[in-house]
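Quick start: read one record
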Amino acid sequence: EKPVQNFLERKKMDTSAYQIEFEEGSHKGGVSAMKKQLSSLGKGITDASAKAQWKEMAGGFCSLFDRYLRTKYDTVKWADIEPPPTEFVKPYADLADVTPQEIQALSHKLVVLKLNGGLGTSMGCKGPKSVIEVRNNKTFLDLTVKQVAHLNKSCGSTIPLVLMNSFNTHSDTLKIVRKYKDLENITIEQFNQSKFPRIAQDSMLPLLHDHNGSLEDWYPPGHGDLYPSFARSGLLDKYIAEGKEWLFVSNIDNLAATVDWRILKHAVSTDTDFIMEVTDKTRADIKGGTLIKYRDTPLQLLEIAQVPKEHVPDFTSIKKFKIFNTNNLWINLKALKEVLNSNALDKVDIIPNPKVTGGVRVLQLETAAGAGIACFKKPLSINVPRSRFLPVKSTSDLFTVQSDLFSVHHGCLSMSPLRMFPSPPVVKLGSFFKNVSDYQNRLGGRPNLLELDQLTISGDVTLGRGVVLKGTVIIVATEGNRIDIPDGSILEDQVVTGHLRLTAH
């Protein structure tokens, strides 16, 4: 019996060693094949500048691909996850006030960067999402420009506005920003994030058939690409040379992500180099990335895509994980330079994003900007009020920000003081409202939502002018039926179903 047991143990060890050797060989072979394929595809390029760009792209992509193959079997050990230490999560209420003189001094240290790589396809629009009109015929980009221009005018400063575009949005954005060229108190810089080839899952080689490829053959590798792309553009060195110290990064569709001088004062006056704004999680945010302590790393971003399936209910619980990342980030420029020079960003987790394009299963390798927090020596998070997180991802969100709940001052949205609750209502509009054009045709005017808790609309429904919604309202038009809510209607804690059609006479 003992010799048999020893044989089995040796066999198990041999198999384990073989598995490791096989995976290492597979990894090296995969990277080698990827490099060879990209090199072969690049041979058709004759222009010297385009050839250099291809070489730079291939180098960056192969580095990412190499890291992915080396780490793809590394999974989060759930037992090693702890809540972030309290000293690394500072309440916003504890931040010191700031004087007008301090604001003026702080403004000369700041650069504002907006992540502008997304398209408006989720709302049925073509082109950059940033050109969708959100309030008073103003787009996301209009409001952002107005905010920064106002800050520069009021502070007597030159805070630059930087847009990180993707290949999907760059050419359109270049044309759009021309309308601001005569605007005072604003300087707009732009750069492109990386453009990487999608990977065919069956071959683990690029989907490309030539160096140009089709639009579907490429993808932008997530906003974690911000750091190397910002440096590659030359803007990082430029702003450090100009005496700028801090970069405020946020999504362009987060209408509440405005410059907060109290946060910047805390950043400048304390020994920190990276600040992530987090806020309390609600049931609407269960999929948002959260901060954890992981082994020796006090602050690390954990995204739902990294969570083992059996622990997803734990991740989405608002009891265990109480905060989530708003993606409002404050980054010290000199510290960022050091992080890039030391290759510390190699620690950032790669998130494989499987998709199907043209009937082919593909893989996109992406990183998150917030994951960079684990690479800095002196990170901090600040638990901010919910009022600093107002993303517009759908027409349901658009419905809320276009209502009487909000007003606009110098490009900044603020919630009405008449609202009794600190957060907006939960709004879910059905598929008939999904596209912006359909959504606009179904609304007669701006709704009154001051006392609304929750709204659900399903089916063929229209809302007239001056409609007031309070409490919990559910409107369901069953298939084949239509509901027109008349002008001036007041619905409070009501369920409306069936058929209600108004005709002109």
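Residues 1-22 have pLDDT under 50 and may be disordered.
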